[in-house]
């Protein structure tokens, strides 16, 4: 394209990144486009509440400022909220942990500008909004990308780079039909997670988010499907029955030697692995990395060199496409989901932990994603 400008998001030269606990991007019509929290499960509803509480202050501040940077908007409890509104009325909010002294405005402004530049770079993708050949397309056709939820994994990693966060690299694997009428066996479908965190040790809970619609969200919901509980059961009984179900998928915490596996499953449309072990694609990572049968989920495979694999079942889902975040589904009375493009936050119980490297002489080092690249500790 003649005269096209390539937008390169600046690197934030500030040490405030580790104080930022959440980044929120809000559309012109005040609909949430993106929310990234350090602990995504701990506070999704709380962060949305804080962002909406600050919107009135944004409107007042815009009438008083000509600079896009709006400064400190308000403080609620332990959080200081800073704001930025672009010329196109895209609002960016940074939620920082409250300290005894205010944060330097020049450093907060650098972070806001870096997030805004990343957003502009995301919108400048000429293929954004076009249909992909499978159901994992990010944005529906005939939708203005500037009004659609941001679910792009590269955008998420770029935000983490700006803030300086280091993230463990994990895969989720679940069963899907083969899609071939001549192959009745189940296949293993895996996806690299862009967000994964521990929620609780007692009970053992983890959380992760996945874009939808996608094969993985369908596979997870299918595994969680169960007959309807008796209507007379109490809410406490429903939760207990949810925790009594069997594990139906695995989360693999990857090691530093498994970078190629992470890259393979981060691509949309990654090939599945047949549980029959027949007609395995030549380039599939399960073919080239040592694997062993899972003892917790029959038919699944565990990467031997991984830090460990968690055998899980779904407990709750939070539909992040819902502006008021009321799209919560309890995986007891069936599985309800949406066909809208966006992402869903899943809460899962850990039933078992499988370690394949117990007899290795050298224990593997964890694979970590930081500063747009892989590293280890």
UniProtKB/TrEMBL annotation:
Residue ranges, annotated region (Disordered): 219-238
- Which GO MF term does the entry hold, naming one? riboflavin reductase (NADPH) activity
Gene3D superfamilies in UniProt: 3.30.450.70, Electron Transport, Fmn-binding Protein, Chain A (2.30.110.10)
UniProt entry tagged with the keyword Oxidoreductase: yes
Keywords assigned by UniProt?
Oxidoreductase
GO term, biological process aspect, one: endoplasmic reticulum to Golgi vesicle-mediated transport
**Domain of life according to the entry:** Eukaryota
Flavin reductase like domain boundaries: 162-376
A single GO CC term for this protein reads:
cytoplasm
What SMART domains does this protein map onto?
A: Flavin_Reduct
Oxidoreductase as UniProt keyword = yes
**Pfam families in UniProt:** Flavin_Reduct, Sedlin_N
Q: Which family does it belong to?
A: Belongs to the TRAPP small subunits family. Sedlin subfamily.
Q: What is this protein called?
A: Trafficking protein particle complex subunit 2-like protein
| Species | Malassezia arunalokei
User: What taxonomic classification does the UniProt entry list for its organism?
Assistant: Eukaryota, Fungi, Dikarya, Basidiomycota, Ustilaginomycotina
